[in-house]
Amino acid sequence: MPSALINIPKKAKRGDVIEIKTLMSHIMETGYRHTASGSVVPRDIITSFTCRFNGTEVFRADLYPAIAANPFITFFTTVTESGKFEFEWIGDKGFSETAQASITVE
Amino acid sequence: MANSNHTTRRTVLGLAGGAAALVIVRPVDATPAMLQAAIRNVVGEANVRTGKVKLDIPPLVENGNTVPMTVSVLSPMTADEYVKSIHIFNEKNPQPNIGNFYLGPRAGRAQISTRIRLADSQKVTAIARLSDDTFWSATADVVVTLAACTEEAT
Q: Which segments of chain B have a pLDDT < 50?
C-alpha cells in the first residue's frame, strides 16, 4: 500500500525559505538482484518526482536504482503566497501517486 | 602444423575467455568510461570545475542500502544567479547515475538531501549547473562495509 509522508511548516512569512521533506514508501527494486534460483528480479522503481506550488513546478527529480528504498527527498522553496503544494511520484509498472499539503503565508 | 593448431586453439580460448569476462563484468560495475559518459551526457563539452558544491556524506557507512547524503551549492539564488540543477554520480554501482534534481531561482536555497545505495566503497560526485551554464563539482570517498544490491532477493 503506497503512502506518502510530507513535512512542511503550516505557516510562514512572505518571502520565507522553507524546507520540504518528502517520503514515499516504495520498494525501489534495482533490477540487478537475483533470486536464489538465479532469475533477475525485474526493476521496479520510482523514476520521477515533481513538486508544484499552485500549479507551477518548483522542484523536479529523476530517480535511478541507486536511490534507496522509500525515497526520501528534501529541498527548499521560497513562499510568496498561501497555497497548495502538490507532489507527484511516477514509476515503473504504472506507479503513480500524489500528495498535497497546504501552507498559510502571512 | 601442430604448432599452428596449438596457437589457434589458444587464440580461440583467449577470445572466448575475454568475451565471457566482458559479458560478466559489464553489468556488475559501472566502469570509469561509463561514469565519464554519464557526466558528458549532462555537461556536454563544458568544463567542470571543482568548488562551490558541498557534498555531505558519511566517509564510513555500515550499510550501503541507505546512505544519507546532502548536496548544497554556494549560490545567492536570485533571479539572475541561481542553481539550475544538481546531478549525482557514482563510480562502482551498476549504473553511474544516482539522481538529477532540478531547482530554480525560487528554491531560495540550493540544497537537497536524499538517501542513496552504494554497491561498494567508492567515490560519489555531485555536479551543479548554475544559471550561467557553468558546472561545478565536489567528490567524496565513501567506505562501505555492507554493500547494497548484492544480496539475494527472498
A: 1-2, 4, 20-28
- A4-105: in CATH 2.60.40.10: yes
Q: Are residues B19 and B61 in the same domain?
A: no
Question: A with B: how many residue pairs have Cβ under 8 Å apart?
Answer: 101
Cβ-defined contact of B113 to A36 (cutoff 8 Å): no
Q: Which of A5, A7, A32 to mutate to test the interface with B (most CBs of B within 10 A)?
A: A32
Instruction: Let me know: does B108 contact A76? Beta carbons within 8 Å.
Output: yes
- Per DSSP, which regions of chain A are E strands? 4-7, 11-12, 17-24, 46-53, 56-63, 72-78, 83-91, 96-105
Number of domain units in chain B = 2
pTM equals 0.84
Is A75 in Cβ contact with B66 (below 8 Å)? Answer: no
3-state secondary structure of B28: helix
- What stretches of B4-147 adopt beta strand conformation (E)? 48-50, 53-56, 60-63, 67-73, 83-90, 97-102, 111-116, 122-130, 135-146
Domain containing residue B12: 1-28
Residue B151 domain flag: no
* pLDDT tens-place string over residues A1-23: 558 999 999 999 999 999 999 99
pLDDT mean over A18-47? 93
- Beta bridge partner(s), residue A29: A44
To test the contact with chain A by mutation, choose from B66, B88, B117 the residue with the greatest count of A C-beta atoms within 10 A, namely B117
